[in-house]
Amino acid sequence: MQAGNNRVFSTALLNIEMKKIGLIITAFFIVVGLANCKKKKGSEEEEDPAAAYDKTAMLTNYADAVVIPNFQSAKVAFDSLAFAYNAFTQNLTEPNLLEVRQKYIVAYIRFQHITTSEYGPSENELVRSNFNTYPTDTLQINSNISSGVYDLATAANIDAKGFPALDFLLYGKNKTDAQIVSLFAGSTNRVTYFTNCLAEMQNKLNNIITVWNGSYRGTFLNSKGSEIGSSLGLLVNQLNYEVDLLKNGKLGIPLGKQSLGVIYPEKCEAYYAQTISVRLAKECLNNIENVYLGRSKNGNDGVGLDDYLDALNVQHNSGTLNAAIKNQFNIAKSKLALVNEPLSQDIINNPTTVDAAYVEIVKLLVLLKTDMPSALGIVITYQDGDGD
Amino acid sequence: MAFGILMLGSILRFISNGWVYSMYIKPKLFFPYYGFEWIKPFGEVGMYVVFILMAIAALCVALGFFYRVSILFFFLAFTYVELIDKTNYLNHYYFISIMSFLLIFLPAHRYFSLDVLRNKNIKATHASNYFILIIKFQVFIVYFFAGLAKINSDWLLHAQPLRIWLPAHSEMPLIGSFLTKAWVAYFFSWFGCIYDLAIPFLLFIPRFIKPTYFFVIVFHLATSLFFNIGMFPYIMIVLTSIFFSENFHITIINKIRSILKITKSETEQLLYTPVPSLKKAVFSLMCIHFAIQLVLPFRYLLYPGNLYWTEQGYRFSWRVMLMEKAGTTFFFVRDKTTGRESEIPNCDYLTPMQEKMMSTQPDMMVQYAHFLKEQYEKQGMKDPAIVAEAYVTLNGKASRLMVNKTTELSAIETNYKTKNWILPQNSDN
To answer: What angle do CA B245, B246, B251 make, to 5 degrees?
Structure first.
């Protein structure tokens, strides 16, 4: 802040010049203003698609038709897994084991439909890392079981619980069904360990559903912006994070993409089951597409990101961005369809087939992570992860 | 004084947002500026000490207490912090550095300050108009170059990136539905361009100062409403008040006086007259400073290609809010002895902010590649080569490869030479 001022620079000449400039500029403002008023009148008849676009409808569709139903159907699957497991513990037989495995697979599949919603209560419960950190630490699991003293909530047990732990306990490595049954029969600690792992997931899922049905639905719907932390921002970020996890955790890492081509079969998701790794990857990709489209489980295609992109008339080369993304979903799905179970074998027998699927998922990632957020004014704030 | 208060606010905001940690303590590597690679962050304690001292310095500047020392320290510390990592480059941080540099040479503590209370002899009621002109000219440069930068086809003919940014706010009450209309984006684009070009001239006309300043307030408040640009609008609003006549400022000072119940002691006029030799030195320094200021924004002309795509000569040129740019960059290490290749998870080395900035800025990709090469050499790889695939989208155009795997990024030197390896952004879409 200055005191004193000798206005030696405002010479008369300069002043006159500036007034002229000022007048010209003022005139220009008026002209531009008038031109715009005219334009406004002209364009009022045309339907402006973006103006008609209703973010509330989109968020409502996501909450009520996609996110909450997916959590609920996951809960149903978890509950029936718990029911089957309880029956198994009462009567340790091979048919009962097979029943548990059946329910385990359904629950694992339904889990693939809730991972894209890791915001709000789901973020608080850290669903991805608590439910699905793999490869699982079998030494840690065995030591927990033999000691019977453990706290699943600690960081040390993050890779000794969740689905990967259930996978190991239900299938083991090179074990016959009879051997698995006798392992359960021979150790009450083992029986309890399974129960505790499952109960932890159930509790977290119940908490999430309670909060969504309580206050969070309103919070989600009321945050209508596109800024960091807005519902749309969270949704797009978590959608992309899931693509990253599909690319790296489910396919890339076992395929040796991050290890100079050295493959890691045992780093496959659901490695011990040996029958569902590819299926889980497909379910994951399907869910990503469903979220993009705003499509519910029963196939109802509601208002989603695709409609938003079209409403904003976002172009991509010669077509629309939405068309390019949908097309890329189809290509990625068709390539993934060629990959065989078990994934841990296919990365050895048919690495080029797996690689082809990987390449198309990378292309999908670029469209969803770079083009789409940029067109929607959304910032990607999460970081690429290398698996759960 | 106002500058000091604003800076104090900025620094406190910075600390309370946890940015000291996320920007200067957490990262495993930093992206220094070419020629400033020797600038390294202090540790956790050190960085907090720097920020706290900066806050104290800002307060001292505001109070006019040990003004010269405080503003000098503030300038050095602030610039030091900014030079650590170009990830955090913002035009307004650059602006603050320059302003604090200029303020070092101004006798801003010789009236209504604690320094005057300490030593009555330094008191001056009047100073040469040159001093104020220095600040005015700097503000002029900022606006004018920001306006010049807006004269490009994306901004004026396609209303980009505003056509992306404005509809994102369609949920706003009342104005929301307008923001999705194309003509609104055009209007904002043209208005912004004309505003930036006209305002610096209009500010110099005393008769127009009130309506002009009204425009300044409206413009900057609008930008702060739509865009997440922190303190900058407020800094500009306050700084442009320098264009008001001295009566305006004296009125404010008198108001503060009456609030603080300080009585005005003297009425005689005291002209601040610096030592002639010092005056000469400062004058030369200012000439050099402004010569650089006028030339620097044009250095991009030395590089071929689209400035916004390659960003060669982009920084330090008052190019604000001109790009919606995003990228996804995959880095790979290739073992040249075996030909085998691995993708590198960026999250192992970069913060989300660093990854975001690196993914669209070629010079940062090279720096990152050099860092990665060192890491793999340390891990025992004999001859690692770092390559990358960078997909970038700019102002709504489809993403395309900016860098492909044929360029060995780790073999490229960091310098100001043309980056031939940046793939061209075809203008055919």
So the answer is: 110
Residues in chain B within 8 Å Cβ distance of A55: 170-171
Yes or no: say if B213 and B74 are a contact pair by the CB < 8 Å rule. no
Put simply, the answer to whether B167 touches A379 (Cβ < 8 Å) is no
Quick one: A262 exposed, middle or buried, by C-beta within 10 A (0-12, 13-18, 19+)?
Answer: exposed
Cα(A33)–Cα(A48) distance, rounded to whole angstroms?
21
Chain B residues with beta carbon closer than 8 angstroms to that of A375: 164, 393, 396
A378–B contact, CB cutoff 8 A = yes
A254 in contact with B, Cβ within 8 Å: no
What gap in Å lies between CA B77 and CA B72, rounded to an integer? 9
Cis status of the peptide bond prior to B161, with omega within 30 of 0 = yes
DSSP annotation of B393: E
- What letter represents residue A152's amino acid? L
Tokens representing A3 are 């005191």
What is the mean pLDDT, run by run of 10 residues, along chain B of 429 residues? 67 73 84 90 90 91 88 94 91 90 86 80 78 89 93 91 88 80 91 93 89 91 82 84 84 82 66 81 92 93 90 90 92 94 93 93 95 95 95 93 94 88 72
Beta-sheet strand order (sheet of B400-403): B341-344, B325-335, B384-394, B400-403
Q: Is the ipTM of this complex over 0.95?
A: no
Contact A8/B129, CB-based, under 8 Å? Answer: yes
The distance between the two most distant Cα atoms of chain A, rounded to a whole number of Å, is 103
CB neighbours (10 Å) of residue A123?
14
Q: ∠ at Cα B83 (B353, A229), nearest 5°?
A: 20
Token code pair at residue A178: 């009879």
**What 3 state SS string does chain A have?**
CCCCCCCCCCCHHHHHHHHHHHHHHHHHHHHHHHHHHHHHHHHCCCCCHHHHCCHHHHHHHHHHHHHHHHHHHHHHHHHHHHHHHHHHHHCCCHHHHHHHHHHHHHHHHHHCCCHHHCCCHHHHCCHHHHHCCCCCCHHHHHHHHHHCCCCCCCHHHCCCCHHHHHHHHHHCCCCCHHHHHHHHHCCHHHHHHHHHHHHHHHHHHHHHHHHHHHHHHHHHHHCCCCCCCCHHHHHHHHHHHHHHHHHHHHHHCCCCCCCCCCCCHHHCCCCCCCCCHHHHHHHHHHHHHHHHHCECCCCCECCCHHHHHHHCCCEECCEEHHHHHHHHHHHHHHHHHCCCCCHHHHHHHCHHHHHHHHHHHHHHHHHHHHHHHHHHCCCCCCCCCCCC
pTM for the full predicted model: 0.88
CA distance linking residue A205 with residue A237, whole number of Å: 21
Q: What pairs with residue B341 in β-bridges?
A: B334
B18 vs B7: CA distance, rounded Å: 17
B1, B350, B352 ranked by CB distance to A1: nearest: B1
β partners of residue B392: B327, B400
Say how far apart CA A218 and CA A220 lie, in whole Å.
Answer: 5
> What angle, 0 to 180 degrees and rounded to 10, lies between the N-to-C axes of helices A321-337 and A277-293?
170
A370/chain B closest Cα distance in angstroms? 5
The CA distance from B263 to B270, in Å, is: 18
Q: Give residue A26's pLDDT.
A: 47
Inter-CA distances, B274 with A2, B19, B32, B118, B128, Å: 15, 40, 38, 19, 10
Q: Are A130 and A204 in contact (CB under 8 A)?
A: yes
Segment (H or E) for B369 = helix B362-378
